[in-house]
């Protein structure tokens, strides 16, 4: 599955598993409004999300009361995605899905007088990522022109992607949470945010501190076809754990 498919698959599983509870938790009045609005926000036609949700309905242990694709055997990637997502609670999935469909908030430049707001235009990449990875949600990053409206950097997508991977590095799979009970993994922008201002899920990878530091030091290029960092023409770090990234 490519990134949009994977992101929409997470949303489709959530809508299949929790149906109207999910629809209402996301602030929609009915299924049609939820499907239409979410599809529009992620740039995909309504039919894809609806059909993907129906595929999750076909799972033998599905909680859905809709018929979906119950006369078909579920495809492998649906089974694998559902198996992984079943470990998350309703509240956890709600927050993850919300972060995937949120858009950065617009604010007036006068709001920058707030001490909790930091102008990302004035920071280098490592400073941006340091603030973006903080667990304190009160600090806000903004970017845009110095005058006029600016946009709040959506830190929630980083916090929720870190939850999605349960403390695991997408490259080496290391998981300090299982050993020490703490999550030390960090979010890294594949195309540096300071240059691209791209904070979409498809531009974020979750890394252990070692791989994060190595990538900043070596500055390897990212091959979107192979989902791997390459250095001097050779594959250096391949993604081994992936629930959201995009292949070209």
Q: Could you describe the 3D structure shown?
A:
It is a single chain. With 248 residues, this protein is α+β, with helices and mostly antiparallel strands. It is 42% helix and 13% strand. It contains 10 helices and 9 strands. It has a 4-stranded mixed sheet with strand order 1-4-3-2, covered by helices on one side. It has a 3-stranded antiparallel sheet with strand order 7-8-9, with helices on one face. A two-stranded antiparallel ribbon has the order 5-6. A hairpin with a 2-residue loop joins strand 8 (228-231) and strand 9. Helix 1 crosses helix 3 and helix 5 crosses helix 7 (156-164). The chain is globular and about 50 Å long. It starts with a helix and ends in a 10-residue tail after the last strand.
Which short descriptors sum up this protein?
alpha+beta, 10 helices, 9 strands, globular, 3-stranded antiparallel sheet, 2 domains, 4-stranded mixed sheet, 13% strand, single chain, 42% helix, 248 residues
Query: Whole-number average pLDDT?
Result: 82
Which overall shape is indicated by the principal axes computed on the Cα atoms? globular
N-to-C order of helices and strands: HHHHHEEHEEHHEHEHEEE
Query: Biggest sheet, strands in spatial order?
Result: 1-4-3-2
Enumerate the spans where pLDDT stays under 50 for 5 or more consecutive residues: 106-116
Give the number of DSSP strands: 9
The SS-based structural class is alpha+beta
């Amino acid at each position: 599955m490519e990134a949009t498919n994977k992101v929409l698959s997470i949303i489709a599983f959530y809508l299949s598993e929790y149906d109207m509870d999910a629809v209402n938790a996301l602030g929609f009045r009915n299924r049609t409004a939820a499907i239409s609005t979410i599809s529009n926000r992620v740039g995909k036609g309504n039919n894809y999300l609806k059909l993907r949700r129906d595929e999750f309905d076909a799972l033998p242990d599905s909680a859905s009361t809709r018929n979906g694709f119950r006369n078909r055997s579920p495809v492998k990637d649906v089974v694998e995605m559902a198996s992984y997502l079943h470990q998350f609670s309703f509240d956890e999935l709600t927050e993850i899905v919300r972060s995937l469909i949120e858009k950065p908030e617009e604010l007036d430049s006068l709001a920058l007088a707030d001490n909790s707001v930091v102008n990302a235009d004035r920071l280098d990449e490592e400073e941006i990522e340091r603030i973006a990875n903080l667990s304190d949600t009160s600090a806000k990053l903004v970017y845009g022109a110095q005058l006029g409206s600016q946009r709040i950097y959506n830190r929630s997508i980083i916090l929720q992607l870190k939850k999605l991977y349960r403390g695991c590095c997408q490259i080496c799979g290391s998981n300090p949470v299982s050993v020490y009970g703490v999550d030390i993994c960090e979010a890294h922008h594949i195309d540096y945010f300071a240059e691209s201002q791209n904070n979409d899920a498809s531009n974020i990878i979750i890394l252990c501190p070692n791989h994060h530091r190595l990538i900043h030091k070596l500055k390897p290029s990212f091959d979107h076809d192979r989902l791997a960092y390459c250095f001097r023409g050779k594959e250096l770090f391949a993604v081994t754990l992936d629930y959201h990234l995009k292949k070209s």
